[in-house]
Write the structure tokens for this entry.
Amino acid sequence: MSNNDNEYGQETDEDENGEIHCPFCKTTDSCDHLLLMVDLTFRHAEGGLLYDAFNARWSKIVETADDPDFDEKEPFDDLLQEVDSLADSELSSSQDEIPGMSSSYNYYFCSSKKKSMLALKAFVS
Ligand SMILES: [Zn+2]
């Protein structure tokens, strides 16, 4: 038996500086492999190749939902699932800019620029 409990209670893929490295080229900047960086707390894409397409699809989902009890969680998870199925790698991070107010981020990567472009094509079609 090993103790897998993280002392911070949440497992993330950040380095010691709180930065996420691309699993394919190791950069901390955005690169051709980054498919999507998404803020899970505020349900908003923050970067990556799918950034515009993701936010466009998500705002359409929110706009067309006229149910006052509309629960954003499920359709958002569905959309993320679709990105996940197109990506080759997924990383997560958690940032505490204000104490007690942390945002969780997911990062999706493709192993090559070509695969990223194909993923974009599949996502918008
Ligand atoms: Zn990269």
Q: What stands out?
A: Residues 34-94+101-124 form one domain. The mean pLDDT is 89.
